[in-house]
UniProtKB/TrEMBL annotation:
Gene: 25491572
Lineage of the species this protein comes from: Eukaryota, Viridiplantae, Streptophyta, Embryophyta, Tracheophyta
Source organism per UniProt: Medicago truncatula
InterPro entries with a match to the protein in the record: MYG1_exonuclease
Official protein name in the record: Metal-dependent protein hydrolase
Keyword field contains Hydrolase: yes
GO molecular function terms listed in the Swiss-Prot or TrEMBL record: hydrolase activity
Keywords linked to the UniProt accession: Hydrolase
C-alpha cells in the first residue's frame, strides 16, 4: 500500500492488517476480497513532492486530526475499479491536491465529475436521496457515487440488478447514515434534554481514538499516518461486515419475511401474529413490508424457534426499528415470571419466561408460544 505525506523524508511503515486482490468477473467485473494477513508488508511513506507512481492513482485527504468519514471514504474508494489500491496523499497543500486523481474531505469542492468529495464548503447541502435527508459527509459522498459498484462486486452481479439497489439502501440506512450524521453534528433525537448516558462505543468515536494523544512525545507525520491506516482498517472492516451481512443474511431473509406475512392469517385470524419457520433477521423487513403492503392492523408478535435451546420465542414488535418500546408488550402480570409459576399465572403449559420489559417470552413448544401470543392479544 502506498502512502504519500508532506514529510521531507522517505520512511518505511510496517502493517499486517489487510491485503487487497481482485480477479476478473465475466470480463467486466472484478471481485474484491479483504483478507487478514499474518505476514507483515511494508508501506512507503514519501514526500508529497516526490515522483508519482504512474501505475497507481492518488487519492488525497487532509493531514492532521482525522475522523471516521475520511478514513472510511479512503477505504471505500480504494475498493473501486478506477481507484483500486490507490495511494493515499494526506496534505492540505492546494497545489498538491489539485494534481491528485481524487480528493476527499478537503479542498472545498464537491464535483463528482472531477472526483472531488468535500462537504465543508458553504452552501453544501447534498443528501443521499431515496427519502433520506441527512447531510452527507465525505464517506457518504463516496458511498453515494461508488456504493453500487462495491455492492455489485460483492454480489457478483451487474450494478443495475435489483438486489444491488435493495442492499445499497439498506447499508446506507443501517450503517452509513450514522457516519454522516455524527460527522455533521446532527443529533439522533430532537430534544432539549441532556442525554441519559454517554455513548462512546460507536464507530466514529472508536476511529477518533486512533488520533495521536496530545501527551505522546512523538507527533510525527509518520506516526500520524500509521494511526490513520489503522483507522481505515477498522472503519473499512466494519463497512465490509455490514455489506456482507446484507448480502449473505439480510437479503435472503426478505423473501422469508414476505412469505410469512402473506401467511399470517392462517396462524391467527387477527393477522397480528407471524410465525417464522426458520429464524432470520426480520425486524427491518417487517417494517418496510408493512408499509409496502399497507398492512392494518400492524403485526404485534413474531414467533420463532431458538435453534440452541429448541424452545420457541414470542417477541413483541417494537414501535419502530430503533425503539425499545413494544407495540403491545406481553402482559404485565406475566413479566419477570418463569417456568411453573408463569405457566400457572398464564394458564398455558410449558412456559419458560417473560422478560421484565415484556418484549419477549418463551415456551417449550410452538403450540405453547402461539397460545401465549393469542392470549396476549386479548389482554
Amino acid at each position: 500500500m502506498m502512502w504519500v505525506t508532506t514529510s521531507t523524508t522517505t520512511k518505511t511503515l510496517l502493517f499486517n492488517k489487510f491485503n487487497f486482490h481482485f480477479s476478473k468477473y465475466k470480463q467486466k467485473h472484478f471481485t474484491l476480497q479483504l483478507r487478514l494477513m499474518s505476514n507483515a508488508k511494508t508501506a512507503r511513506v514519501s514526500d508529497s513532492s516526490s515522483p508519482s507512481h504512474a501505475s497507481l492513482k492518488r487519492v488525497g485527504t487532509h493531514n492532521g486530526s482525522f475522523h471516521c468519514d475520511e478514513a472510511l471514504g479512503c477505504f471505500m474508494i480504494r475498493l473501486t475499479r478506477n481507484f483500486f489500491n490507490a495511494q493515499i496523499v494526506r496534505t492540505r497543500d492546494p497545489q498538491v491536491l489539485e494534481g491528485l486523481d481524487a480528493v476527499l474531505d478537503v479542498g472545498g469542492v464537491y464535483d463528482p465529475s472531477r472526483d472531488r468529495y468535500d462537504h465543508h464548503q458553504k452552501g453544501f447541502e447534498e443528501v443521499f436521496g431515496h427519502g433520506f435527508s441527512t447531510k452527507l459527509s465525505s464517506a457518504g459522498l463516496v458511498y453515494k457515487h461508488f456504493g453500487k459498484e462495491i455492492i455489485a462486486n460483492e454480489l457478483k452481479v451487474d450494478e443495475e440488478h435489483q438486489n444491488v439497489h435493495y442492499i445499497y439502501l439498506a447499508v446506507y440506512r443501517s450503517f452509513m447514515e450514522a457516519i454522516d450524521a455524527v460527522d455533521n453534528g446532527i443529533n439522533q433525537y430532537d430534544t432539549d434534554q441532556p442525554p441519559k448516558y454517554v455513548n462512546n462505543t460507536h464507530l466514529s468515536s472508536r476511529v477518533g481514538r486512533f488520533n495521536l494523544d496530545w501527551t505522546d512525545p512523538d507527533q510525527s507525520s509518520e506516526k500520524e499516518n500509521e494511526a490513520f491506516h489503522r483507522a481505515m482498517a477498522l472503519a473499512g472492516s466494519e463497512f465490509l461486515d455490514s455489506v456482507r451481512f446484507h448480502v449473505n443474511s439480510w437479503l435472503p431473509a426478505k423473501s422469508i419475511v414476505m412469505e410469512t406475512i402473506a401467511a399470517r392469517q392462517t396462524v391467527d385470524p387477527s393477522g397480528e401474529i407471524l410465525v417464522l419457520k426458520r429464524f432470520c433477521p426480520w425486524k427491518l423487513h417487517l417494517f418496510e413490508l408493512e408499509g409496502e403492503m399497507k398492512i392494518d392492523p400492524p403485526i404485534k408478535y413474531v414467533l420463532y424457534e431458538d435453534e440452541r435451546s429448541k424452545q420457541w420465542r414470542v417477541q413483541a414488535v417494537s414501535v419502530s426499528p430503533d425503539r425499545f418500546e413494544s407495540r403491545k408488550a406481553l402482559p404485565s402480570q406475566w413479566r419477570g415470571l418463569r417456568d411453573d409459576i408463569l405457566s400457572k399465572e398464564s394458564g398455558i403449559p410449558g412456559c419458560v419466561f417473560v422478560h421484565m420489559s415484556g418484549f419477549i417470552g418463551g415456551n417449550q413448544t410452538f403450540e405453547g408460544a402461539l397460545a401465549m401470543a393469542k392470549a396476549a392479544l386479548k389482554m
